Amino acid sequence: MASYFSCSDGEMYCEKINLKEMLRQIELQYQAVLTPLFVYSRKQLQDNVKAYVDALKEYSSSFQLNFSVKANQNLTVLREFQSFGLSATLVSGNELRLALEAGFEPTHLMFNGGGKSAWETHLAIKHGVLINVDSEWDLKQTLDICRHGFPEPKKAKVLLRMNLNIDPQVHKYVNTGMLDCKFGLSEDSIEGCLQLLEEPGCPAELIGLHSHAGSTIYQTDVFKLCTRRLLHIRQKLVHRGFTELNILNVGGGLGIDYLEKEVETRSWRSETELTAHNLLELRQFLLLYSEKSKFQQRTDELSSVDVASIMESMAELITDYKEESLQEVENYSHIFLLAYPHHASPRDLVQSISGLLKDTGVTLMLEPGRSLVANSAVLLARVLGCKSTPNKRYVITDASMTEVIRPCLYGSYHHVTVLGSSSGCKHVYDIVGPVCESADFIGKDRLLINPDQGFLVVHDVGAYCHSMSSNYNARMKAAEVLVDGSSWRLIRRQDTFEDFLAPYKNLE
């Protein structure tokens, strides 16, 4: 898939817009410093949607594609997705309000969440939103509001969120598919919900099943296994009398390749740690799949690799720059590249489950967030200065954990590009912000040309960055800009200090 962000002669472009020139214009217009600044590509958003829709049209006869609003709650972005024909998945009453404001058809919206307040459920029922039931008490609350929350009783269409105990092999904070996670109903615990739904005059109709294993998932096997188990549960429920059970929602969670350009700024220090990490992950991956015949040879090959020896060679490479050590490591690379999983695309996802859905008559629902919006935005930031200690060099920027919390929260990687000259001496830097926390960093151990008092760009910040931003240290939330070809427009202004003070005023 083409990227609409490019770098040429030390300048960064979004589509046809030079980011530094755009920043100069917008700061002149608003008479304010507007970095850090989120910049979105409309064409990238459109391409991301097209990748899903093309795959769904090819492999599925009936489908619904929902954008997961928690990934990005900018109203203009939501309106763009609505104009592209998507619906939306929500996890709060205010996200529902946002979706209605953006113009989404209410009856196609999906309301998820394990802790719905009564007013949120009331709002969903009022507008005919599909409700994803997370627990027995969640269903009881829904039924009670249907019966007693309106002048006349109302009906609700519901799905059951199943916890299938499938490990997506992701960070524990974004793993939502295991039995020790707070989400969903295990197959052994749905009987209470089924009995409530079977009661005469029940105001809720069970129309589907849902699962969501986690986020940053790179392997389609996870989605395939979820689909197979949901179909098995559906078959049993249809035989029990739930004949309108026609929606299968396998959630979202498809990852993107955050590491695509990582090699450009990788330091030797990171090289050693990354190699060790990849070797351990590779071994775990191969052992997990060793029962499959196509992986058996690779497992055998791996067992002959002396990991300690490779790591020792890497250490020699760093200290002595011995070419023979590098060659020794590269001799094993074919094993790693053949066996290690690649980043699945929307087409891979849909293709992996389409065969299971053939002739079932169900409507496939997907609710991606990250894979629709993450690579559509960058964060443009100013470099405030550089600093050295006996152990570290730092690039200090006006962007921080209040704009991009993922590195601090999940240990996630975001690529960073320094704008300006591409020649000169390179050093290894940590990229940090002004927030008063040691955890305030954008990236660590990046090999960069001295970026003193210039600009840098943080990549792939369209998902779970601005929507997770905060006012910590009394920092104002950042502005956002949407680029479309050779034009741009502000789609969120930067917060002002007056905005920050407003909740504390006029209290009496």
Compute the average pLDDT.
Answer: 87
Number of strands: 20
Shape, principal axes of CA atoms = globular
In total, how many domains does the architecture comprise? 3
N/C terminus separation: 55 Å
- Helix and strand content put the structural class at alpha/beta
Radius of gyration, in Å, reads 25 Å
The tally of helices reads 17
Beta fraction of the residues?
15-25%
Question: Percent range for helical residues?
Answer: 25-40%
Q: Could you name the CATH homologous superfamily of the largest domain?
A: Alanine racemase
* Assembly of the depicted chains: single chain
The CATH class of the largest domain: Alpha Beta
CATH architecture of the largest domain: Alpha-Beta Barrel
Give a quick account of the main beta sheet: strands, pairing sense, barrel closure: 9 strands, mixed
The poorly predicted ranges are 318-341
Pfam families: Orn_Arg_deC_N
Cofactor: pyridoxal 5'-phosphate
GO biological process, one term: lysine biosynthetic process via diaminopimelate
Keywords: Decarboxylase, Lyase, Pyridoxal phosphate
